[in-house]
Design goal:
alpha/beta, Methane Monooxygenase Hydroxylase, Chain G, domain 1, 2-enoyl-CoA Hydratase, Chain A, domain 1, 7-stranded mixed sheet, 10 strands, 10% strand
Length: 457
């Protein structure tokens, strides 16, 4: 078979990592270009015979091993080059694009990603694993990792553009998310009604923008996260906090691997750690262990009906949870075959190690109002009482002033989750989640647990 003959010759040409960044980059890029050419000769995964699929796996393993070897030696130099000596903060999306240009085939180019996006999950080539490897190496470096975390905590350009609108009108409609002032509170509302407020590539940017706006608005002292009204007869056109990942988009191949990274380093971490700005950076001595003091606020979660997957993960980063009686709270990681964000790091702090393992590994659920759910919910109310409870909590948190609130929540956070611990966790998460996202197990799990239900979870 020609592909096997080409594979044997290619395997014998593995590149050296010796020399400087430029020399090693060229050698690695040439090797990976040959890998891409070999993969291009194979039919799609679903149309391949066992020998062709075995060849695909062998090529992928060798190529990713070459990426690992190159980055183990040159990740620090590459990050420094991409960020112009740490002078330019780059979001993770920008970093991978620049890396693809600087070292071709180290990670997929925008055009390669566009082609991969056209494939349904069962037919994807696994190109995004390379992104996870790159991000893992960058986050594993203390200086580069903290620089990247700080870049991801900066407000989005769109957020800066829309802030005057919020200040003038008291609300901003971002489509899949909206922001509304409610007294001294800023309410972030997730609006994906056709999918029970599931999260996907379309909701991610607007949600982060909405969180930015709440954190930047000087008229807002407390943030609120809640789900909008959904289009589902089973929920009587009521509100749903969130049903996790949009599994329809995931299976159809429309949910990129970077979604997981951008979500957890972006709006989720902003809720937890606040916004990082140049003004704040100037106040902080270089080399300190923690990220500079951020602009942050207390956050309330108003949980109605469901908090599944990513929605449940949000309960770990807010300061107060109000849930309607009977609301289901769970992490369907076992049935999906992916890592539930930073829940593996955070959930044990709330419910204990044993219950966290039961939730993540065995599908344990909590129901608001039952005794064991008290570790995840601060208040449980009847559905018709949510608005009153929310107003009372906002009033309680703002009426006595919030001078020390940010300092107190920062002190709690530094004690329970130092930034270095989060950086190291996310370095491992990036690599492992990339392999999960590209695995045949994920496809099988979705076909067994999702397609049979025909729902987004």
């Amino acid at each position: 078979m020609l592909i096997v003959e080409g594979l044997q010759a290619w395997t014998a040409s593995e590149p050296s990592t010796e020399g400087g960044l430029e020399v090693a980059s060229r050698a690695t890029s040439d090797f990976l270009a040959s890998a891409a050419a070999l993969l291009a000769r194979l039919p799609s995964r679903s149309r391949s015979n066992p020998e062709e699929n075995e060849a695909r796996e062998a090529i992928g393993e060798r190529a990713n091993a070459a990426r690992e070897r190159f980055l183990a030696v040159h990740a620090a130099s590459l990050y420094e080059a991409l960020t112009e000596g740490y002078a330019k903060p780059l979001r993770v999306e920008e970093l991978v694009d620049k890396a693809a240009s600087r070292v071709p085939f180290l990670v997929p180019s925008p055009s390669e990603l566009a082609s991969e996006r056209l494939r349904k999950l069962p037919d994807k080539q696994g190109a995004e694993i390379a992104q996870g490897i790159l991000i893992a190496h960058f986050l594993a470096l203390p200086r580069a990792g903290r620089h990247l975390l700080e870049a991801m905590l900066r407000p989005l350009p769109e957020s800066l553009e829309r802030l005057p609108e919020l200040e003038r009108r008291g609300s901003v409609d971002l489509g899949p998310a909206r922001v509304t002032r409610r007294g001294r509170a800023g309410v972030v509302e997730l609006c994906n009604p056709s999918y029970l407020n599931a999260e996907d590539s379309a909701t991610l940017g607007p949600t982060e923008c909405a969180v930015d706006l709440v954190l930047m608005d000087d008229s807002v002292d407390v943030g609120v996260i809640r789900g909008g009204v959904v289009e589902h007869a089973g929920y009587a056109n009521g509100r749903v906090f969130g049903s996790g990942l949009n599994l329809t988009h995931l299976y159809e191949g429309r949910l990129d691997f970077l979604f997981y990274i951008v979500r957890d380093l972006g709006y989720v971490n902003k809720i937890y750690r606040g916004l990082f700005t140049d003004a704040r950076a100037a106040e902080w001595p270089a080399g300190e262990a923690e990220i500079a003091p951020t602009r942050e606020q207390l956050f309330i979660a108003a949980v109605e009906s469901l908090a599944v997957g990513g929605a449940c993960q949000l309960l770990h980063v807010v300061d107060h949870v109000i849930a309607t009686r009977g609301a289901r709270l769970f992490l369907p990681a076992r049935k999906e075959g992916i890592i539930p964000g930073a829940s593996n790091l955070r959930l044990p702090r709330f419910v204990g190690d044993r219950a966290a393992r039961q939730a993540i590994l065995s599908g344990r659920e909590w129901t608001a109002g039952e005794e064991d759910a008290s570790l995840l919910c601060d208040e449980v109310v009847a559905p018709e009482e949510m608005e009153r409870a929310l107003d009372e909590r906002i009033d309680a948190l703002t009426s006595s002033g919030l001078v020390n609130a940010a300092a107190n929540r920062r002190a709690i956070r530094i004690g329970e989750e130092p930034i270095e611990q989060f950086r190291q966790y996310m370095a491992q998460f990036a690599r492992d989640q990339a392999y999960c996202h590209a695995s045949t197990a994920l496809v099988r799990n979705l076909e067994v647990h999702w397609r049979a239900r025909k729902t987004a979870g």
